[in-house]
Amino acid sequence: MKNIIKILLVLVSIQVTAQTNFENSINNFDTENKEINVAFYAGYEDENKKSWKKRVKREFKKGAQLFSSKYNGYGIDNDGGIVTGKKAAMEVLKVETIISNIKKVYQKEGKKISKVAIFTHGVIGSSGSYLNFGNKNVIGIDDDVNGTDHLIETIDGFVDEIDEYLKDDATIILYACLLGSTFKDKPLPKADNPIRKEDKRTGGEGSFADKLRDKLNENGKSRSVWGHRTTAHTYGNCNWRLFEGEQIGVKANKILFKTPKFRGGAITSKYLAEELREELDYKKFVPTRKCKNNNTKICDSDPLRKWLGFIYPIIPKKYRPFVKSRENDTIEFDDGLVEWLAKEYKKTISDFRKEVYNRKL
Q1: I need a surface site. Which of 140, 257, 287, 290 has the fewest CB within 10 A?
Q2: List of E strands, the chain
Q3: Does pLDDT of 251 surpass 90?
Q4: pLDDT at residue number 252
């Protein structure tokens, strides 16, 4: 009897050891293959206690925290150590902080950065567009920003500082207004406005995101840059343009939306949202919100549309172009895209709604 018990104990020990080894191998595999991503948000100092500055800083911070918590965020804490998850979202007031923290994350983790997400203001001035962190700290296309002394860093200088710490296929996501365009959209032009038509024709050529993409890929890399073409919510704006590394000199969005008349991210989100609502548990995951006319139909500002604005740059490349074909009102999306989005939506929507609307499901 004792021998039988010993044998059983040995077998249990072997099984536990094997299971532990298997779990460790899985965990090691995940760790070795996990992306290293970083997120920064502008921490506007509010000397005059202006409420709008508090609001936009809160919006930037929430977006960066959401990105870091869901998509392998790594950051540097006040003691210079590595933090992950929600706490990895890094507040910045100076461009040099972005540069130094990207370097520190690389040095401490020994892996190059896959995604850099920046949540702040994008501005189009009299001499071009620039990324604005407040306190006269900006990244500009060249050495003249809006005719002022605001310049802290040019695109060329910024990329030269971070180039060696980025993967060859890294992605820069600019959660900021207008950096995928060369035209202001305020006051909002009508559909037939020549400014809007010209913006569509140029496809973002000459914009901040376009110039950044070109500089990032000077030495044969294949890095992408995402930039908004309109002014809207920092990370709930569906009007994205994608500037692909292998598409240098090509207008943005063609790699995303195959049909010429269907390149707009906002238009795509309308149809994509409809398919997602069918895929999801409608009442649980996609609640209706009252529009201005008090109807209970889904509004453009509903959580699902805003969430699509957040998630577009994170959708895997294998699902591009998002739109395969369009015939009249029938749109065919890439195989597996809606299913992937439904899975991600269920995983992130609780936090997203909490951050955007400050309420639970």
Answers
A1: 290
A2: 37-42, 74-76, 82-84, 90-92, 113-119, 121-125, 128-132, 138-140, 151-154, 166-175, 224-228, 240-243, 323-327, 330-333
A3: no
A4: 60
